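Long-time lurker, first post. I've been practising inverse folding by hand and with some scripts of my own, and I keep getting stuck on stretches where the structure tokens seem ambiguous. Below is the full token string for one chain I'm working on. Before anyone asks, I'm not after the true native sequence, just a reasonable design that respects the backbone. If someone could post their per-position residues I'd love to compare against what I wrote down in my notebook.
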């Protein structure tokens, strides 16, 4: 009987404050969708880091004849065969180095034409203007500085470049966007909590006569509070369900179908469905507990029960 009464009061409360209940559902859905999205973005960035950092190379570019005339690092002239052999030997002996690949001027010119063949500059370049280089794969991509310290400024070396630095700029941008999404999420959560508190208080005020009678007949505080807390929890849970549906739909249409980014952007290792599905229980639990706790603390002060 008591359970039936609580359930009936929940339905009455939701119908009486339909507009505010709808606002709570929308705000909870948006905030938790942003919350889930930010978690998935963090997973995506970490996945991309693991994928790309494993593939980045450190490049030791060697001086050519053109560099000897214009670059201070190559003031002693183009790299010699003895210098190339010594550089290769030193690289092979370094514990941080996994593999070393030599790229000749002709190979560098061929790769440049493949990547930038449409550029106006490509037609004016010749193979002898390209730089020979050693492409080094490190066992630990974080150990770039070891290579830079060993070869920067050495005779025959024009520069040492780390591809990881380019990726770091991309990941910093993605992390910045992720933190911006979290800031918006926090704002939306505050708005959702304020709406929940106001909705509960309006509902309690509209039923103050019933709650007064229940107090007079000796009803416990929790028994009086339960319908209001459950109203907020139900509205929040609906919002959480909408947020989960949004995340699943977004993953389906953006990555797998519709935009099909997984097919168009083969160079990006996208997160799988397991990453999405593991976030859904957390979102649902948050959508249930957050409104219930907000309603509980709001009612303690408002109803004084």
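-- Answer (accepted) --
I ran through it position by position. Result:
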């Amino acid at each position: 009987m008591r359970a039936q009464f609580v359930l009936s009061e929940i339905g009455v409360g939701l119908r009486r404050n339909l507009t505010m209940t709808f606002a709570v559902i929308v705000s909870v859905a948006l905030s938790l969708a942003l919350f889930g999205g930010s978690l998935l973005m963090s997973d995506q960035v970490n996945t991309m880091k693991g994928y790309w950092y494993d593939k980045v190379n450190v490049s030791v570019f060697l001086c050519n004849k053109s560099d000897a005339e214009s670059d201070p690092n190559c003031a002693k002239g183009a790299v010699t065969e003895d210098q190339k052999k010594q550089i290769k030997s030193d690289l092979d002996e370094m514990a941080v180095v996994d593999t070393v690949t030599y790229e000749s001027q002709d190979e560098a010119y061929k790769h440049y034409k493949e990547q930038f063949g449409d550029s106006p500059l490509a037609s004016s370049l010749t193979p002898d203007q390209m730089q020979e280089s050693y492409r080094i794969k490190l066992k630990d991509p974080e150990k770039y500085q070891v290579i830079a310290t060993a070869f920067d400024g050495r005779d025959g070396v024009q520069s040492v470049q780390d591809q990881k630095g380019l990726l770091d700029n991309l990941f910093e941008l993605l992390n910045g966007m992720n933190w911006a999404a979290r800031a918006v999420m926090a704002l939306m959560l505050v708005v959702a909590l304020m709406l929940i508190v106001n909705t509960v208080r309006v509902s309690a005020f509209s039923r103050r006569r019933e709650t007064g009678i229940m107090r007079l007949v000796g009803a416990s505080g929790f028994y009086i509070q339960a319908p209001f807390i459950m109203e907020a929890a139900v509205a929040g849970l609906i919002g959480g369900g909408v947020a989960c549906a949004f995340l699943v739909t977004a993953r389906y249409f953006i990555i797998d179908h519709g935009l099909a980014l997984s097919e168009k952007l083969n160079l990006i290792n996208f997160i799988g469905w397991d990453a999405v599905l593991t976030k859904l229980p957390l979102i649902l639990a948050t959508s249930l507990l957050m409104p219930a706790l907000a309603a509980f603390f709001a009612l303690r002060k408002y109803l004084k029960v």
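A couple of notes from the structure itself: The mean pLDDT is 80. Residues 163-206 form the longest helix (44 residues). Happy to go over any region you disagree with.
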